[in-house]
Amino acid sequence: KESSLLLISSVLLILGIASITVFAVSIIEYIANGDEVFRAILAGLIFCSFIIPGVMFVAPALMRLMGIKNQPTEIDIAKRIGEHYPEVQDRLCNSIELVNELNHAVTSKDLALAAFENTAKIALMKDFEVIIDKRKPKRMLIGFISIAVCTLLSFSIFSNSLGASLYRIVNFSESFVPPAPFSLKIEDVESSV
After folding, report:
1. DSSP string spanning 26-80?
2. Using the 8-state DSSP alphabet, how is residue 132 labeled?
3. Which residue pairs from 135-141 have beta carbons closer than 8 angstroms and sit at least 24 positions apart in sequence?
4. Alpha-carbon distance 169 to 174, whole Å?
5. Torsion sign over Cα 101, 106, 110, 111
6. Quick one: pLDDT band at residue 146, thresholds 50, 70, 90?
7. Contact present, 91 and 119 (Cβ < 8 Å)
8. How far lies 94's CA from each of 60, 82, 87, 110, 124, in Å?
9. How far separated are the first and last CA of the chain, in Å rounded?
10. CA geometry: angle at 122 spanning 121 and 128, to 5°?
């Protein structure tokens, strides 16, 4: 469950970063009104805003969810449980260490199993889901929604400027030559009959 929440938080973080990047890059293109190469660089920045955070945040969360990497050890989980239930921490850590040492001749199998059983009886009444931080995905969702709404409102309100600059970035290989300067001057000419 914790791995799923971590993955959801990571995906929301990436989408928020990408939204901010799209907005910033569109403002830059609006101000600069760049050529094809400049717009290609800006499009590359948008692409990188998905790839780099994806590698940094989503890939580790996905590997943890699939059980490939970044799995917390039993001792780490026991310590986290002990932060919420101090009366269980030492017993839980000691029992896990004793059970892990059963293959060695030094540890008594009966002693280890009795310690583990005693700890299990105490820990049975505890809710271990308290170690899962459920607030982080909620904060990420609120942050992403606020960023996405601000970005969409900006593109809706300023569709002629920001929307046009985003269109130029998306179609970076096309040439968008600004119109030639045009002026019209009307002179009053005397007419004689």
Report:
1. HHHHHHH---HHHHHHHHHHHHHHHHHHIIIIIHHHHHHHHTSS-PPPHHHHHHH
2. S
3. 136/5, 136/9, 137/5, 137/8, 137/9, 137/12, 140/8, 140/9, 140/12, 140/13, 140/16, 141/12
4. 9
5. negative
6. very high
7. yes
8. 30, 12, 13, 15, 17
9. 94
10. 105
Contacts within 8 Å (CB) and 24+ apart, 77-84: 77/131, 80/131, 81/123, 81/126, 81/128, 81/131, 83/131, 84/130, 84/131
Give the residue from 172, 188, 193, 144 showing the smallest Cα distance to 41. 172
CB of 165 closer than 8 Å to CB of 26: yes
pLDDT beyond 80 at 17: yes
Contact indicator for 166, 35 with CB cutoff of 8 Å: no
DSSP codes, 69-104: S-PPPHHHHHHHHHHH-HHHHHHHHHHHHHHHTTTS
Highest mean pLDDT among 21-25, 61-65, 83-87: 21-25
User: What gap in Å lies between CA 54 and CA 65, rounded to an integer?
Assistant: 15
CA angle at residue 190 from 186 to 192, to 5 degrees? 145
Per-residue pLDDT at 48: 92
**Residue written as tokens 């907005």?**
23
Cα–Cα distance, 11 to 148 (Å, whole number): 14
Q: Are 169 and 29 in contact (CB under 8 A)?
A: yes
